[in-house]
Amino acid sequence: SEKTVVLCGINIYFCGSLQGGVNDEITLTAYIIIALLEIPLPVTHSVVRNGLFCLEIAADEKENHVYTKALMAYAFALAGKEEKRKALLGSLEKEAVKKDGSVHWQRPGKEPEVDLPYYRYRAPSAEVEMTAYVLLAHLTTQPAPSQEELSFASLIAKWISGQQNPNGGFSSTQ
């Protein structure tokens, strides 16, 4: 399912089967901005600047999906946009699932996990992925993360490591 789309004035050719939890322009823009900033392209590059402008407008909307917020928080962290990063992380913390001394995020409307003594629940890959993006957003900041952020990040890392299978992998390679 390969296609070309125009996102915030950027022509993008991509494979739709590689998308994660949400299928919309803002989420895809965040993916692309993250990839470009990790190259690393500077935030002053016109494509990065235009994409970040679109994300800034979208971040002000109240109806963003939790998955999209996680991606945007990491994109803003990479771009050094501290105020936007903190605002999204604050919003995400309100939606966090805090259980058994760990923290994670799940898709809205998802069925609660089955708690059976003989069965070890593993979250779907999209939930592991979005939780990992939130962890990256907490740890990617200048100056270094505060002690409070590191403590919260350790609760996220605890949940992620609990999702590993006996071979060290996850429910998907995504």
Order of strands, main sheet, comes to 1-2
Total number of β-strand segments? 4
Structural class: mainly alpha
Low-confidence stretches: 13-18
Beta-strand content estimate? 5-15%
Global Rg: 16 Å
Largest sheet: 2 strands, antiparallel
Distance between the termini: 17 Å
Helix content: 40-55%
The number of helical runs is: 6
Write the layout of secondary structure elements.
Elements: E1 2-7, E2 10-15, H1 25-38, H2 46-59, H3 66-79, H4 82-94, E3 97-99, E4 102-104, H5 125-139, H6 147-162
Antiparallel strand pairs: 1-2, 3-4
Helix pairs in contact: 1-2, 1-3, 3-4, 3-5, 5-6
Description of the molecule:
This protein is mainly alpha-helical and 174 residues long. Helices cover 49% and strands 10% of the residues. The protein contains six helices and four strands. It has helices at 25-38, 46-59, 66-79, 82-94, 125-139, 147-162, and strands at residues 2-7, 10-15, 97-99, 102-104. The protein has a two-stranded antiparallel sheet with strand order 1-2. A two-stranded antiparallel ribbon has the order 3-4. Strand 3 (97-99) and strand 4 form a beta hairpin. Helix 1 (25-38) packs parallel to helix 3, helix 3 runs antiparallel to helix 4 (82-94) and helix 5 (125-139) packs antiparallel against helix 6. The longest helix has 16 residues, at 147-162. It is globular. The chain starts with a strand and ends in a 12-residue tail after the last helix. Mean pLDDT is 85; it is low at 13-18.
